[in-house]
Amino acid sequence: MRFLVAGAGSWGTAFTRVLLDRGHDVVLACHTQEQAVAIAETGRNPRYMQKVDLRGVEAVALDDAPADVDAVVVAVPSTVFASVVAALPGGAPVLSLTKGLDPATGERLSTTVRGRGVAVLSGPHIAGEIAVGLPTAAVIASEGRLPRRPAAARNQLERLPRVRETRTSSASSCAPPRRT
């Protein structure tokens, strides 16, 4: 898969490394052209997580983000989330790594995404630990409809990047047994 990671801070840098480790093509969209050039030239992010190897990533300025991607990962501050997502080219679905609420409306950030699918990754994440492959727990949630069969949903979710191990379940498999 080809991913666009919008945001080259600590979390965007760490998640980029996870995607690269799983064999995905990654475009890392940086806040400035200068940061993109530095990453392209050195294989390192000069501002965040300087020890993380980014060789193999295509670094561009956010304004030059490509439209021809399969998914967009957004890892920007909540204060600019809505404007960054609105300016993204193409129609690839969004996976939000950004925590918080939209400061203008107080709504969930995912509600500011228009015209494309959206899911939110949440969990106890420490970017530095994830960047070096330490295990973590995560939940990806979406209001979108899942396939009718839980097995089909699990198969789709299990294609997502893994740090160590992924276990998935449907809401129905988490419910207590029915009493008759």
Q: How would you characterize this protein structure?
A:
This protein is α/β, with parallel strands linked by helices and 180 residues long. The chain has one domain (2-144): NAD(P)-binding Rossmann-like Domain (Rossmann fold, 3-Layer(aba) Sandwich). Helices cover 27% and strands 17% of the residues. The chain is built from six helices and seven strands. It has a seven-stranded mixed beta sheet, with helices on both faces. α1 links the parallel β1 (2-6) and β2. The longest helix has 12 residues, at 10-21. The chain is globular and about 40 Å long. The protein starts with a strand and ends in a 6-residue tail after the last helix. The model is unreliable at 146-158 and 162-178 (pLDDT under 50).
Task: Sum up the overall morphology in one term.
Answer: globular
Uncertain runs are: 146-158, 162-178
CATH topology heading: Rossmann fold
Strand content: 15-25%
Number of helices: 6
Strand order of the biggest β-sheet: 3-2-1-4-5-6-7
Q: Tell me, rounded to a whole number, the average pLDDT.
A: 83
Coarse structural class: alpha/beta
**Gyration radius, in Å:** 17 Å
Helix coverage percent of residues? 25-40%
Tally the structural domains. Answer: 1
The total strand number stands at: 7
| Succession of helices and strands | EHEHEEHEEHEHH
Quick overview of this protein structure:
The chain has helices at 10-21, 33-42, 78-87, 127-131, 150-157, 171-174, and strands spanning 2-6, 25-30, 58-61, 71-74, 94-96, 118-122, 139-141.
SSE blueprint and pairings:
Layout: E1 2-6, H1 10-21, E2 25-30, H2 33-42, E3 58-61, E4 71-74, H3 78-87, E5 94-96, E6 118-122, H4 127-131, E7 139-141, H5 150-157, H6 171-174
Parallel strand pairs: 1-2, 1-4, 2-3, 4-5, 5-6
Antiparallel strand pairs: 6-7
